[in-house]
Every structure is written in structure tokens, then in C-alpha cells.
Amino acid sequence: MLSAKPLPAYLLQRYNGWKATTYTENRAWYKRLATEGQRPRAMIISCCDSRVHVTSIFGADQGEFFIHRNIANLVPPYEPDGAQHGTSAAVEYAVVALKVSHLVVLGHSNCGGVQGCMQMCSGEAPHLEETSSFVGRWMDLLRPGYERVKDEPDAETRMRLLEKEAVLVSLENLMTFPFVREAVEAEGLTLHGLWHEIGEGGLEWFDPKTGLFAPVGQGAAG
Amino acid sequence: MLSAKPLPAYLLQRYNGWKATTYTENRAWYKRLATEGQRPRAMIISCCDSRVHVTSIFGADQGEFFIHRNIANLVPPYEPDGAQHGTSAAVEYAVVALKVSHLVVLGHSNCGGVQGCMQMCSGEAPHLEETSSFVGRWMDLLRPGYERVKDEPDAETRMRLLEKEAVLVSLENLMTFPFVREAVEAEGLTLHGLWHEIGEGGLEWFDPKTGLFAPVGQGAAG
Amino acid sequence: MLSAKPLPAYLLQRYNGWKATTYTENRAWYKRLATEGQRPRAMIISCCDSRVHVTSIFGADQGEFFIHRNIANLVPPYEPDGAQHGTSAAVEYAVVALKVSHLVVLGHSNCGGVQGCMQMCSGEAPHLEETSSFVGRWMDLLRPGYERVKDEPDAETRMRLLEKEAVLVSLENLMTFPFVREAVEAEGLTLHGLWHEIGEGGLEWFDPKTGLFAPVGQGAAG
Amino acid sequence: MLSAKPLPAYLLQRYNGWKATTYTENRAWYKRLATEGQRPRAMIISCCDSRVHVTSIFGADQGEFFIHRNIANLVPPYEPDGAQHGTSAAVEYAVVALKVSHLVVLGHSNCGGVQGCMQMCSGEAPHLEETSSFVGRWMDLLRPGYERVKDEPDAETRMRLLEKEAVLVSLENLMTFPFVREAVEAEGLTLHGLWHEIGEGGLEWFDPKTGLFAPVGQGAAG
Description:
222 residues, Carbonic_anhydrase_sf (chains A, B, C, D), alpha/beta, 10 helices, Beta-carbonic Anhydrase, Chain A, homotetramer, six-stranded mixed β-sheet
């Protein structure tokens, strides 16, 4: 028999509150979403971290964003080897089936996954090197980023750079997917790299012209 | 040079609105979350589908839920083969590092991934059978579920059953992870299977005693 | 020998019900709360009144709110005189030890303590003026509020204003505590004044810009 | 100008959920409570600790319990000296004005206030000895309890005993209030001492016949 328990009371209470307010006030739209299917404008790839509240930051409403969340917002390179690639499947579905217009990779400060990668790559976390460590193997994706930042002497700056590399490595890997590259070249899709500072509520975007992250503007895009 | 564009204006606008209101009103808490780290009570595994608005349904606030979202809310079986398993990494991080108390698998109606699986398994979607189809290979995870529902004659009922199988297969697979099993047996973790009906705003939970999904209660858990 | 009796049957029954349901469904979380300690996001100061159901109104779950309840939700001014100040001790513990992010003073309609204060201050309740009246001496804290509202001619309006003064006097007094002021100035703490209408289930917040209480919004804060 | 901010969004959301469900479903009762006043059957004195969820443990509904919460659920001795005694005021109001039938002192495990008292009394927390420490001066109330348990050699047992002393000292002090003693002797009021174990969800009651705390029964009172 499966191990499964009733919904904890606090979640049930929250759900009942949502049903009686947000759902009730938007019933017509939700019914239409169910009937007509979703038509999201953007895909967002962010971290599972509970402090990265994507839907809050972007005021997301039901039906707006196709959201994939994994550890450290990483996208692996294109590897059509028949194995299971959850992130690649999500990207494929968003770009090929849903034809989203924007694909945003959202990194963040204080990322536990990135911190683990830093420790692993610098030899301080042997348990993450083990074959059986899912987190370690997943963070292997960020090793190319580590190589680019490892010589930064200041520890805090180095961590911040690696968090941003998690965005850059993902953007690089995205372009190895033929369907992503084609959509970008056909101007049907734009890619965006962001980094969110949790404590200050900051948001920086990657500007390929300068090769740096810079605060997003207050009044205009970028 | 990387392909990356400035943040689309509508997202910048939303972010600026969030910064001036929600962030400002909760600055003290966000600073504390950044300094002290996250301590989420629950992990939620849900679909990337833009209509499954996890944070809205459960009134989630910053720091409350560790959320992994992939196509069709699937968890693969335990396979410590050194390859990249993003979902397994997320589960490992949540259970081992964060020690979440609840792990909720949230399925939903009108799921495009599940629909693709149904078509693929019944021979109607040869393109999903190809090695190069990431969505197809990902949905292979649900084949054991398809086997259990394929004899249901009514098409709509069959689809609904398969959507719920996506929850059940994931719950089964979760228990193949040694660290999940141990946490469940030590009463440090409870698993929960839910299915969300988008149009009606409904929520059903899997009750292992009956082997069926039933609407969650209005006043009490289950 | 101490005077103490067994738990009344109705409370025992309630507890047994809780243990078999809510506790059992949330055992993992409660164990973790016991081991790791509390980390409440907010402190709430409310009245002891049985009709002010703080945890219900805010859907509070175990571990979320540090709650101090006294007669008329009053906070005395800062008086480090070595005497016993239970409310000041609670505020100190919440702000200094627990570092809560929000401190909410929740007043309410139909408050018996405030009514007593009104009668006492207007000379209609001599028994409350006696040295031995604990309620009278406690309500002395609200005398500055009475002075500000006493000229309001309509009795019902006057009472309502005094209930709200119980919130304002407390907010004023809170800022006389050095550790509260410092936390507020360092943006580590925000203060909030609320007034709850019991019969209508209403909730108003104090807006310092207007100097008035106004209904909280339906969709956004304030 | 007073320092006060709008209600944080998460609390507003919770409130709106409550208004649309619990309030709406119970409107008639809440209106009556507002009109007729409260008539609580019991007063509960518990700790402010966010993990001591009094209303959950006893399935409390609006109007049932008059609840006073302070650090370590302490009641000071009767001291009609004209100074402000918030706890004594709450007890006076409950017994004299509301005429509650039961007065329950609810202690708990893992109490930060009791831990502070232990450290202070054993000389390990000089900052709590300072005149300006509100927590320290408040915990002075428990010094008689410390004297009775200080010779217990096992640290964990000693802490547990002191947590229970916080209940016993309060029960003793309650009987020094003339109006409490009179109500008890007239059989209009019963006193109850409880201790709640957070991790296990346990509940023990003080039995004056044995002088010990014992688990409350499963089927009958005590």
C-alpha cells in the first residue's frame, strides 16, 4: 500500500480560503483556461528555493507563466540520448508545443545548490563527489562556471559570480538545443538571464554587450 | 556571445510594482530569510503548467514551500547511476538537507504532458516515441500508470485516471529512495498525493485506505 | 496542598481529538519544531477576549506567531525599574531573542477592558479607581487615549475611538523601548496597528499618513 | 508621527480567506457574540511561544476561551500595590467579571523563558540578572521553583521539572488572590495545571494527590 496521508490541516485551510476568494472571483477565467488550454507568454526557469517567489516577484496570475523549478535553475546541454531529462523536456514543451515568447533563467543569491557546487569543486565536500549524490551530480552541470570564477580571491564575490554563472551556463546550454536556437533566430523567442538578490529584493539582468549583470531599470526595460 | 535580451517591459513593470509594495512591506522578513537561510515546512512537486498556481492555491508566502516543477509532476525511481537527475536532486536536497516535514505531489486536470503520454502509449503519437523527444522519454516514466488504466473504455475517464496515476507513480517512486523511506518510517516526513481540477478549482487527495482520490474536506484534513 | 483538579471532560475530549487528527497528521513538523526551536515571523499582541480569535483570523498554524494576549492589548511605556512587566518581557523576547519581523497590535470592538476604562475615566466606576483593582490600574495605561477622545459627543463613536486609542497608545509606547526603536530604524521590524470588528468580521489598519483607521484592502495590503 | 505600516500581504491574504469562509459560515454566531458579549467557560494561561497552539489543542472556537499568554505562563503573587500587573488584571477580569468556571495553567516543553531562568539562577546568564532585563525580572517569579529543583543532577530532567514548576508556582500564586480563593472555595471555579510536550503532542496534568504530573487519560478526565 502506498504511503500517503491526508492533507495537513494548514494547507487545507489555505486551500479553502483560496477557493472562497481568488477562485470564486475568477471562476470564469479558470473555466476558460481549463477548456481552451494554457497559452503562457513566458517560461521561467528558477530555483526550488522557497525564498525565490517567482509568482510574487512577477505578479503572476493563473495562466501566465510556464514555470520549471529545479536546484540552482540549471539547464543541461542538449543530449538526445533517450535518457530522462526533465529540464530538457520542460524546455522542449514550452518552446515547441506552447511556443512561449520569452524564456527567463532566474538565478538568485544565497543559493544552497551553488554553495554546494563551490564546496564540491574546491574539494571541501567529498560526499557530493560520490556517484550516489544526486545533488552533486546535478551540480556537475555548473563545473564549467566554476572554472571561470575559481581564481577570484574574495570568497563572497566568488560565490556571487558562481550564482551568476548558473544563469550563464544555462543560457549557453539553451542555445545548444536546435529548437531553441531556431526559435531565437526566427525571432520567435528571446532569452533572458536574471539574478535576484533575496535580502534587498534586487534584480539584475545579464547584458551581453558588457558581459556583466546590471540592475534592471526603474522606468524602462533594461 | 550569449543570446540574451533585456527584461520584457511587462515583467520589469511587475517587478517594480512588487519591489515598491510587497518587498517594501516585508523587507524585514526577506532580509532575515537571506541571513538565516530558508526553513520550508513542505516540498511541493507540481507541473510546470501555467494554470497550476501552487503558490496561490496554498497562499504560499516567501520562505514557505520548496517547490519543484516539471512536466506532469513526475518523480523517477531511485537510480544512483551518476547521471543527471534533476528531480531526484531536488527531492534529495529537500529531504536530506532541508528536512521538510511534508512532501506533496500535486497533479492536475487537463495536463498536456499526461495527454501526450496517453497518445504515445496508445500509438497515436509516433513523434513522441522517438529517441530525440525529451517529452516522450520523460513521459515514459508514466507508462506503468498507463498499463493500469488502459482498459478503461471511456476516454475522458481514462485521461483523468492517468492524470491521477501521475501522482501515484510518483508516490511509489518516492518510496524507492532510501532517504525518503527512512524519513517516512522515522515519522519525520509524510507524503501526500493531490489532484487539482483547474476549471472547478477542485482538490482531491489520495486515500490509501480506499485506494481512491476523494475531495478534501471543508473543515478538516481529508 | 495545591488546589488542582483533573482536566474537565470536554477539554480532554477536544485534546484527544486533536492528538488523533491534527497532531498525527503533522507529527513530523511538530517534532522538528521541538528539536529546532521556534522561528515565528510575527508577534501579535491582542486582547484576552474569547471572541478575538487571532489564530483563526490569520489562519495561524503551529510555529507561526508569537502571541501575547492581555486585557485590551496594551503595551506599557518603557520602564526598566526592576519590577515585573510581563508585556515588556514578551516584547523584549520577541524582538531581541526571536528577532520577529512584524509586530502587530490587534485591537477589537466591544472590548470590556476599554469600556471599563471609559467608565472609570468619566467617573462612573469608582471601584476601578481603587488601588486594589488590577483591571483599573492596568487600564490606567489608556488614560492618555481617553484624554484625546473624551470630547467626542456621541457615546458609541467615543467608545470606538477609545478602542482604537488602545492600539495607538500601544504603538506609541512600543517606540519608547530602545530595542524596538532600533529594530524599526534598522528595517528589521515593522509595526502594525489593527482594529477588528467582531460582529461584522471587519479589519481596519492604522494609516499614519491620514492618522485614521481604514478597512484593509481586498486584494492588496492596505 | 507613529511608526506603522500596512498589513503584510500574507496576513491580508489569510484574513481575506477567513472572512470568506469561517466568518461567512458563522456570521450569525459572531453577530450574537458582538451583541450579547462573551461568556467563556474557561480561562487559559499559556506561554506566548508560537508552538503552543492553545486554540488548536483544545479545538477552541470563537467565544470559548479567555486566553492570557505571557512568557512561561507565569502568574505573580497577589500584590495590590497600585502598580500595573497585566496578568493579575487578566485573572481578575476572568474570575470576577466573567466568572469563568475553569482556570487552566498550561506549561510546555522546550520553553525558552524557563531555559533562561535556569541559566540565570545557576549563574550562567549575567545579562538576565540586570535590572533592565524585562525577561530576567519576569523570570524572577520562577525562582522559588528553581530552589525546589536545583539539586536534580540530570540537566534534562532538571529543565523538565522547572517547566512544571512554572505551572505549580502559578497555581500557588493564584490561590493568594482573595477572589480566586473565594471562587474555588465556593466551588464556582476549579484550577488545573497542565504541561504540554511539543514534539510528541503529549499532555500531562498535575495531580495534587500524588504531587506529580501524569498523562491525561484517553477516555476519561484525568
